[in-house]
Amino acid sequence: MDATTLIEDVIDREGGYVDHPADRGGATRYGITQAVARAEGYTGAMRDLPRALAARIYRRRYWQAPNFAAVATRAPLLAAELFDTGVNMGPSVAATFLQRILNALNRQQRDWGDIAVDGNIGAQTLAALDTLLATRGPAAEAVLVKAINALQGERYLRLAETRPANEAFLYGWLALRVDTPRV
């Protein structure tokens, strides 16, 4: 898994400076919100956020910190999907999706015990993933990606239903986010 390619692709897809009035996240550059940029120590204007800093933020906050790099060694397409989902919804949401799916696929805990749905990919989540991949074979990764996409799509629809201003984003979310990951 080439994290650099994933990061560069997401920066290209997110585009430059955006300050959409319906976006609660406020101004962004390369998809990085002002709140995240400030938390990372950036004090300049958002429209001037350097691309290299955006790449470092994505690598640390959205790839390394949520442990998607460890997932990539086992299931690279799944890791790419988790990364993309995490960029748009937050890494803990993406990790929670994976944990929920793993719990639902454990055949009533015959294959592995339920894991905590805490948004943190640690030893238990990775062990459950390893067991699923070993017991269900290579197709299991594609099933996990489909399941992540299903949860992602449902969440986008719910966001638009509960906050009409989000309808401005729903088509793009579904068109650009709920699909096969780009590797």
From TrEMBL:
This is Peptidoglycan binding protein. It comes from Sphingomonas hankookensis. Signal peptide: none annotated. Residues 94-175 form the Peptidoglycan binding domain. Residues 8-90 form the TtsA-like Glycoside hydrolase family domain. InterPro entries: Lysozyme-like_dom_sf (IPR023346), Peptidoglycan-bd_3 (IPR018537), TtsA-like_GH18_dom (IPR008565). It comes from the Bacteria. It holds the Pfam family Glyco_hydro_108.
